[in-house]
Amino acid sequence: MNRNVLPAVICFLLAASTAFSQSYPKNFFGNPIDTPFILAGTFGEIRPDHFHTGIDFSTVNEQGKPVYAAADGYVSRIKISAVGFGKAMYLTHPNGFVTVYAHLKNFTEPVEKYIRKIQNKNESFEVDESLDAGKIKVKKGSVIAWSGNSGTSSGPHLHFEIRDERTEEPINPLLFGYQITDHLKPEIKSVRFYPVPGQGVVVDSDRPRSYDVVAAPEGLIIPVSDYIQVFGKIGFEFSLVDHQENNPSPLGIYSMQLTVDTQQVFSMKYDRLNFSDGRYVNAHIDYEAKYDGEGIYERCFRLTGDKLKFYQDTTGYGYFEFNEDGVHDVSFTVTDFSGNSSVLNFQLLSYSSLSNSTYQSQPEDYFAMIPDKGLAIHKSDVEIVIPANSIYEVLLFTNKQSMRQNGYYASTFEIGDPHVPLHLPVTISLKPQHLPDDLKPKAVVVSFDKKNKPVYEGNDWGPEFLSAKTKHFGTFSIAVDTIPPTVSILSLPGDDNPEGRALRIKMKDDFSGINLPGNTGREMVVDGI
To answer: Is the dihedral angle over the CA atoms 191, 197, 199, 200 positive or is it negative?
Structure first.
């Protein structure tokens, strides 16, 4: 036997066992803001196409609160954008961590002066500047900026992150000893049973089925008059929300645990995330329920194409096989970071006669896809390229062609099922029909939203086809965009406005949007300069 094998195995097991028990310095970082710790957002909270990677400190709907360096270090990056984090500052600290402060109103004057020089030189508002270690040093507790509402923000607050300097992975800041006053338990709003299509049944079909959860004298219950009957392979999903005292903001949870007949089936914690994994949020939640407006359900099982790393034991993927007749005890526990827990205990009746239930019918003319394989379709009027690892579970993929609609310049194509999330962009190429040459530069691929309104997807011309990359399935065609954007003045430098001496304008386009990348679509001239 190779003597190096055993140490290697031991090291691997140690790494695996500590992945969810790593300790972090509890007294190193100070408070980044001098206000009561009222959270407007928690780490790991479900957001569109990503997880929230920090915590949001409420500034009680006010801007201009002093923001302090959480520890000694230096300014390692400054990023300014009209979207995303808006104005953001990154501090690197000597213990291997980086703190991030985002949605700021403005920086200290030395930093503002430094940034203005870069903006003037590049003739660009947007900045992404990395700084050397000795350029701008900071001391713990020193003012580095003022809170604001810049970027993609729904209201004034401070977004705060702590990242691993080596991996750039965000870590839950509350693991570093920040104390949040919170005595409220998370709320379990409803439970959703997810039978694996063709392999499981709930009541009478292999379609998911949801039940409300209510409070009763004996605890949380599912208000049904009889046992919920199941059979086969079943997953569990829960609609959850947490709150903090004197705080109306709905917050995310910290951990979940599911047991069936005292056997732990699933558990997870929001301790650490990876930016490259953000879009897997659409695998973690029930995307179909979200698409249909039924709310957010977090899964207590893992789809085969879900690569998230915060699941603590996924050897069985979290499903449970109800294959023998009898009553089963199910217990679900959800906990927030302050240790407040809610528990839902209920029973399910496994009934073998349900195996005779009618399963969902399969669509006609489908391609069976698995997550790690791609698919390319080439037809006379449409080409579809779906890369490998674009889906999270087995998909019976279909595409249908119908007549060209009035006002459009290609057939109408139903490509895939919009209830199914995509992890990677799919390339859709359509062949135009009856498109005049003078409208060709204005032709765009569009999809149609739930109200059948066209939505711009892209306009990349090839020899015969017009292409676009999209991150959703749906219905597609070709339209033309002949209406220019509009520009309006919101405030002048002399006006009394919260942006100070800024000239504020609003650019709007109702279809293909403003050409923003690289600032090539915007230019401002003042007095001919």
So the answer is: positive
Containing domain of residue 273, as a range? 187-356
- Using a 10 angstrom Cβ sphere, with 0-12 exposed, 13-18 middle and 19 or more buried, the burial of residue 415 is buried
Within 135-178, strands assigned E span 137-138, 143-147, 157-164, 170-171
**DSSP helix/strand/coil, 9:** helix
Are residues 259 and 237 part of one domain? yes
Q: Are residues 204 and 162 in the same domain?
A: no
Q: Are residues 226 and 192 in the same domain?
A: yes
Task: Answer yes or no: do 113 and 85 share one domain.
Answer: yes
229 located within any domain = yes
CA separation for the pair 314, 250 (Å, rounded)? 28
Q: What is the pLDDT along the chain (529 residues), one digit of tens a residue?
A: 344 443 444 343 333 444 445 789 998 999 999 988 899 999 999 999 999 999 999 999 999 999 999 999 999 999 999 999 999 999 999 999 999 999 999 999 999 999 999 999 998 999 999 999 989 999 999 999 999 999 999 899 999 999 999 999 999 999 999 999 999 999 999 999 999 998 999 999 999 999 999 999 999 999 999 999 999 999 999 999 999 998 899 999 999 999 999 999 999 999 999 999 999 999 999 999 999 999 999 999 999 999 999 998 656 789 999 999 999 999 999 999 999 999 999 999 999 999 888 888 888 889 999 999 999 999 999 999 999 999 999 999 999 999 999 999 999 999 999 999 999 999 999 999 999 999 999 999 999 999 999 999 999 999 999 999 999 999 999 999 998 888 888 777 765 655 555 677 778 887 877 665 444 445 565 555 5
* Domain identity same for 324 and 191: yes
